[in-house]
Write a structure and sequence with these properties.
Strand content: 15-25%
Strand order of the largest sheet: 1-6-5-4-2-3
Number of helices: 5
Number of strands: 6
Largest sheet: 6 strands, mixed
Length: 182
């Protein structure tokens, strides 16, 4: 478990250093745009299912390890309900949608036409990573990523725990779309 935690911390450090390098050298080509893409009514949105957290073997030894496992257990209590809400919520969505596996973005990128719905907590919470704490609450952008160009559109900001309320996420998106596409 300790080795897993150290590996995670090292990967996080490498990721942060890589992002800092890309930003400082202007290799990140574009900024996210606010709002909806203009051709959303003509393309498919791919909504990923929320994945299950895979708990590590062995008993957590440190306080931090126990926190990670507790976060993973909490996630596993709610992720199926969230996926059911997604399946129910897209019935009211006005345009073409497809539900895809949690980690299908890389497979779709460059191989499909449309937009991928991206919300960071879909990927961090199953790993036990939680930014919000007892006295803090973080919001993350809910985005659509163009699978052909990589352009990102920030639709709105959601709280980290909203990952377990996929129905509300879809409802908010649908309302915003109905205002933009009467």
């Amino acid at each position: 478990m300790l080795l897993l935690l150290l590996k995670f911390k090292m990967m996080r450090l490498v990721y942060c250093l890589l992002v800092a390098f890309l930003v400082s050298t202007n290799l990140i080509a574009q900024e996210a745009k606010e709002g909806l893409p203009s051709d959303l009514d003509q393309k498919t949105i791919y909504f990923p299912l929320v994945g299950k957290a895979i708990l590590p073997d062995g008993k957590p030894q440190t306080r931090e390890e126990r926190t990670v496992v507790r976060n993973m257990n909490t996630h596993n209590k709610f992720y199926e309900k969230s996926n059911t809400q997604l399946k129910d919520g897209i019935k009211k969505y006005p345009f073409k949608v497809e539900i895809v596996e949690p980690n299908s973005y890389e497979d779709l990128k460059g191989n499909a036409s449309g937009y991928f719905f991206y919300f960071e907590p879909f990927y961090t919470l199953p790993k036990g990573e939680k930014a919000s704490g007892e006295n803090t609450y973080f919001k993350f952008p809910a985005k659509l990523i163009d699978l052909e160009t990589g352009e990102e559109y920030i639709i709105y900001y959601e709280g980290e725990n909203d990952v377990w309320r996929y129905g509300e996420i879809i409802s908010r998106l649908t309302k915003k779309i109905k205002k933009s596409y009467p």
